[in-house]
Amino acid sequence: MSGSNIPVATLGVPRIGRRRELKFALEAYWSGESSAATLLQTAKALRAANWMEQCDRGVTKIPSNDFSLYDHVLDTAVMVGAIPAIYGWTGGELLLDTYFAMARGGRLNDASPACGHGRHNGHGKGVRALEMTKWFDTNYHYMVPEFSADQVFALTSTKPVDEFQEAKALGIHTRPVILGPLTFLKLGKPEEEGFEPLELLPRLLPVYEQLLDRLAAAGADWVQIDEPALVLDLGDQERKAYKQAYEKLAAAVPELKIMLATYFGGIGENIDTALCLPVAGLHIDLVRAPEQLEEIARLARKDMVLSLGLIDGRNIWRADLQAILDRIEPVVGAWPLERIEIASSSSLIHAPIDLELETGLDPKLKSWLAFSVQKMSELSILSQALSGGRASVMSELKASSEAAAARAASPNVHNPAVRERVSGITEEMKNRASSFTERHAIQRAKLQLPAFPTTTIGSFPQTAEVRRARAAHLRNEISRDQYETFLKRETEAAIRWQEEIGLDVLVHGEFERNDMVQYFGEQLSGFAFTKHAWVQSYGSRYVRPPIIYGDVSRPRPMTVDWWKYAQSLTEKPVKGMLTGPVTILNWSFVRDDIPRSAVCRQIALAIRDEVTDLEKAGARMIQIDEAALREGLPLRKPEWKEYLAWAVECFRLASSGVEDSTQIHTHMCYSEFNDVIDAIAAMDADVISIETSRSKMELLDAFRSYSYPNEIGPGVYDIHSPRVPEVAEITNLVELARSRLSDSQLWINPDCGLKTRKWDEVRPALVNMVEAAKRLREAA
Questions:
Q1: Strand, helix or coil for residue 644
Q2: Where in the chain do CATH 3.20.20.210 domains reside?
Q3: DSSP tally for the chain: helices H, then strands E
Q4: What is the pLDDT of residues 114-172, one digit of tens each?
Q5: 389: left (phi over 0), alpha (psi -120 to 50) or beta
Q6: Which one of 106, 433, 541, 764 is most buried, by most CB atoms within 10 A?
Q7: pLDDT in tens, 672-703
Q8: Any catalytic annotation for residue 720?
Q9: For residues 420 and 13, what is the distance between their CA atoms, to the nearest angstrom?
């Protein structure tokens, strides 16, 4: 690509490695199988590979500091010294294990937690992890910073400078990426009531100034400062704070140019604020908000660089490059070309790495897709077309248009029978026959459960033995019968152990399931699956989202046989376990040729069929997990009503085809419930379980203030941490829940599924949980 071409930027790229190298390095370090030096060397190699890949693909504005061992928001908290006192940090460089304790919980030495270079010996005090929640409306989790009213900030880590210099040593001049101070504060939470994190901005800005000064001294000429909070609903004080902050930052190091990056939506009513900031460049998301281009191009200063987010950083569909050019050329033609950049809409961290690894995909479907490295090539083609004319890349443009046309016309995408069934949905199909009060009495008489009934969320540990058996079956090294015999043995062992420790409502353990979405998608029409298209959910937890490419239906029952086998082993109730339609939608790569609501209704009808088949088989409890319902909320509140209306409708459509005596459960992951409590109530689930342990039951306040009538299982132990909670700790959490809800509403359960944990953590934790419930019953 010639130097005269319009610059190409990615904003950030996946950090996990083509073969999940980071995951395996992290888990080897955590288990004690490898050293910190080995982990850090793997990380360094991944960064170098990412920079080289971008060079090879025509990216000219290559990011650095987009890499993280765990989470970039956690990195920012560490960088500015926002480290809660419980982690024992007293200044200086932070221990690697203290960093991971903030992310995962664990044990820290009482003696000298902030000095030394090795792994903590496992003795000392156990600490909780920081709270975790979703990064805007993506499927990525970030660690929530905690701020005290007397917060002191200091430049504790020079990671952005170090990684800039690391790339420089390889001959690559990068544009460092840092999370902006306003978004960082907005994403955090106060440790105590009585102040807003935004009040800390004057204390935080000097640390950013110091960092920018060091970047300039190291040779950086540009820095990308990410402020995705600019696409949110902001108040006057927040807009004023943006002006104050960037006037100060721009003046502090004038030789360092700032590319202010917004993404995940349009700037909207914050446009005046964004355009008046003294920054050298502005990145805008033209995938989520294409309509903002004309206004911003009209109002922006002509000396400002506009970075146009034209290629979707969050989905996997190949772009129709000619259609993009048709849309933007009139605007770009009126703007100085030297003031234009071509970029992905957001960081490519949300996309899989390389489509070429997928040798087993249907060739037609594969021709419709683009992963991270293919998106880099798309950006380069757009740059060349805008710089030198379409003729210079005509073959590439023609191929992208032909792929778009073939996808639109494919009979594999469109199923008239599915469309007809959706059009026949009635109001009666969306409602239970009776109110919760009536159902509750019937269910209580039928189920005969004790006070504070105990259960789990569904999955049990997927051990190395389980994963080996699954892999052996996929490689045809063991037969289907041998594999099912193994799974039955694991299921029976789980049922017997649950009976032994005294759980009241059992689960079958889900040993046959690879992933809570993939397992169902593999049995539904309209879905496709990959082998290597991993994306990061949090830390070392990676997922391969299914690809919804066509109309969805359920050819045959998916879970009934496994539920029937598990229930045949015990007299206690075994829950049927399903993933809800909204979660399947939100945790998939979704087709973009029809509305998401239409796709969701198709999935809801498929799940409804499974629910009614489970009931016919004898299931008395059916859990339909909607872990991702809240995270699908649009970022702008005026758009919430429409989304919640169809999301709740889809859950009810999936769950309402059963008798009053069948108890419907659902589960939700980390969420702030205050703003959506009406919608949660409208779902009309008989029992909802939610993640509350990290927030110390604060998330129940919404249910208390709303006078939520249905039953609730607040999570009483944090499954995302290896810590085993003591009986007293669980009892204290339940007491906090009892102060917010009535005893008759409360269930006792972990805060999420146990798939990712080890049995030596799960067994004592659940034993303690059951013991806590027994003590509560005795004391009640």
A1: helix
A2: 8-409, 416-779
A3: 27, 24
A4: 323 334 333 335 788 999 988 999 989 999 999 999 999 999 999 999 999 999 999 99
A5: left
A6: 106
A7: 677 788 999 999 999 999 887 666 677 788 88
A8: yes
A9: 41
Q: Are 130 and 143 in contact (CB under 8 A)?
A: yes
Indicate the fold that domain 8-409 takes in CATH.
TIM Barrel (3.20.20)
- Cβ contact 115:103 at 8 Å: no
Separation CA 165–CA 631 (nearest Å): 37
Predicted TM-score of the model (pTM): 0.89
**Residue 568 contacts by C-beta under 8 Å, 6 or more apart in sequence?**
none
Span between the terminal Cα atoms of the chain, in Å: 74
Among residues 72, 440, 532, 720, the one annotated as catalytic is: 720
Burial of 560 (0-12, 13-18, 19+ CB in 10 A): middle
CA distance 342 to 281: 12
Q: Find the DSSP H helices in 356-414.
A: 363-366, 372-388, 394-409
Is residue 445 classed as helix, strand or coil in its secondary structure? helix
Q: How many other C-beta atoms are found inside a 10 Å radius of the C-beta of residue 620?
A: 18
Q: Are 16 and 540 in contact (CB under 8 A)?
A: no
User: Is 114 within 8 Å of 90 (Cβ atoms)?
Assistant: yes
Element (H, E) at 483: helix 480-501
449/248 Cα distance (integer angstroms): 62
214's CB contacts (< 8 A; 6+ apart) are 158, 161
Pairing of the two strands 576-579 and 589-590:
unpaired
Residue 202: closest CA among 218, 182, 216, 183? 182
Backbone torsions φ then ψ of 168, nearest 5 degrees:
-60, -35
∠ CA 174-176-182, nearest 5°, is 160
Cβ-based neighbours of 274, under 8 Å, separated by 6 or more:
230, 242, 260, 262, 267, 282
Reading across the β-sheet that carries 589-590, which strands appear in turn? Answer: 525-528, 547-553, 589-590
Residues 6 or more apart whose Cβ sits within 8 Å of residue 33: none
Tokens of residue 529, six digits? 């699956």
Kindly report, residue by residue over 393-433, the tens digit of the pLDDT. 999 999 999 999 999 999 999 999 999 999 999 999 999 99
**In 3-state terms, what secondary structure has residue 106?**
strand
Question: Distance between CA 287 and CA 59 in Å, rounded?
Answer: 19
Q: Which residues contact 639 (CB under 8 A, 6 or more apart)?
A: none
Q: Is 379 helix (H, G, I), strand (E, B) or coil?
A: helix
Given 3.20.20.210, 3.40.50.1820, 3.10.28.10, 1.25.40.20, which CATH number is that of 416-779?
A: 3.20.20.210
List residues bridging with 535 in a β-sheet: 543
Q: How do strand 222-226 and strand 257-261 relate by DSSP bridges?
A: parallel
Q: What is the DSSP letter of 548?
A: E
